[in-house]
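Predict structure. Chain length: 704.
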Amino acid sequence: MKPGSSTQRVYFALAAFNVGTLVVSLFLGATLLATYRGSVATNEQWAGRLARYAQLGQLVTEANAPGNDVFVDKDVPGQRARLARTRADVDATFTAARADLSTLSAEHQAALGAELAQARVHFDAMMAEATSIFATFERGDLDTAGTHMGQMDQAFARTSASLDALRTRVQAVQRELFARQLDDAEATQRGQYLLMGLVVLMVAGVVAYGVRLQRTMAAQQRAVDRANAGMRRVLDNVEQGLVLVDREGVVRGERSGATDTLLGPCAEGAALHEVVSAIDPKAGAWLRAGWSLVTDDCLPLEVALDQLPRRITAKERTLELQYRPVLEGERLDRVLVVVSDVTQALRSERLELQQRETLAMFERVMRDRASFVEAFDECDRLVDAICRLGDRDLSVVRRQLHTLKGNAATLGLTAFSRTCHQAEDYLQDTVGDLSREQADGLRHEWEALRTRLHSLLGQQRDVAMSVDRDAWEAVVAALSEDAVPRSDVRRMVEALALDPAARRLEWLAEQAQSTAARLSKGPLHVVVESHGVRFDRARWSPFFSSLVHLVRNCVDHGLEAPSDRAALGKGVGTLTFRTRVVGSALHVEVQDDGRGINEARLLERARQQGFSPATGVDAMFLEGISTKDDVSELSGRGIGMSAVRAACEALGGTLSVETAVGQGSTFRFTFGLQGVAWVEAPAPRQAPSGTAAGRARNDFMKSA
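Prediction complete.
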């Protein structure tokens, strides 16, 4: 054999050997890859099932919540609707899970199907108990509702146990399948070990491939650098501040350029609460105290983040903070803090609210100028009294502030009413008086409203005298009779200068209607019976202003919801406002046909706070006593009714209450006739027993 041909054969042999090695290597690699892909696909399928069963467990937990939460918010319709939505999601998930089982082997179908069916049985039992809770809760049988709640929680525990067992079985199947796949992979790998010696012959190719890979990676790094530079440009041009904070509340990683503009210097490693304290010390202290709740894991993460300050004040700007958790698995890793300048938005919101208030004032002025001006003047008097700081009775201030809030809401002054509500919160939480800053702020806001009112009314604020037709006919009848002394006719005419009670009562009726609409207790039937009574405005305005609290009390506490009235066989709720003269006394009455007064509960509340009233009605008028568990802008502080009583007693009046469970209540205020006149409709002429003018004088007009 020639050397050349021998060398050639060796060359071809090596070439054939290399090709064979490459083919075998590719085959083993393809086999191993196929095994890996099959393993990934199988694990994804079973992981999906495991996730579906975990989701089912979460939905079952959510379905358990309404039956418990209804004991807190007592919102049966809302919780029932919430349960229905969650149950629909659970049913859909159960259906999907059963359909998925049909794709498995008979062995796996039997094992998983039994656990899934058991979980369904327990869940249906849980839903039956939840339905019973709502039914017994609506009947007021809280003991039975509590029993059903316990049984529901037991069914929930059994359902959760079945789902846990189901997930355990899935994990066992995953482990079994993974073990099989691992055996297959190891068998393939053993074949690869046989080729390891041949890999040396491929070194040249591997080196060449490494060089190529290095070049590729360098190109990819340049692409990443370009992407980072682009992201930096984006962060530097967004208007919001974006900053990452670790679990300790320390700034870490990238942040947007607007962050330093809004918050000031916010360098890497700075504590966020220190950055915030530099522009708003109170918010910074709040953030420092609240951050411990985030890291202590004593509260759900969403609840803990919600305790952190949402707005901070930086000179003339208002900044809004949002906290978005960045999780690593289920553990909090960092928090993305989003800082937004909402100064202009708040200014626009305030401007829009002022425009709505101005429109509300305009509508009320156009509808009843006299009543609006009188109510506004009463608010003006209350603002002056509340803002006059010094040594004074704070219980009186609280009643005045509560009355001012109610009257402002009646006038449509929503923003000012909220300001009063915030001042009430302050007085409730502190043992002292309003601060000078709060009093000046309240007065400044009111002065702005008064300026806007003057622009509506003009310089002339005097209102026209209101004369109803019945009173006019009584005067005409007196004038037509010669026997009526001129002095009596004059007194009748002078009485017309007083304010008609009808206007006052109609104003209260309007407040009742708006309150009923706000509380979803409409429609409401309102009856006004003034019987021609008229009042001296200066003397009686404070009393009628305080009656707004009684109106809200009757609507909020007295009248049942429309659905409850329908269940009791009652029609539309009725509220009656009445003034009348009986003998030498004036009666002012407010009557509702609602549920009546729960005297036992009022007595219990009063005694819990150290009072010893004789009756539940007496307890109702004590300051700080309310049957509501929460405070709203309408009621719940227990101040309104004490303000009504104080206004009544200030006029030397007495107060009595008639109530019957399920039938309603009547509040009757009895006064003397000072500053009171009344002119009723003239009686038919009857000769010769007396003249119409005489009856007009004796029966239709009396004053003290």
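Summary: The domain at 3-194 is CATH 1.20.120 (Four Helix Bundle (Hemerythrin (Met), subunit A)).
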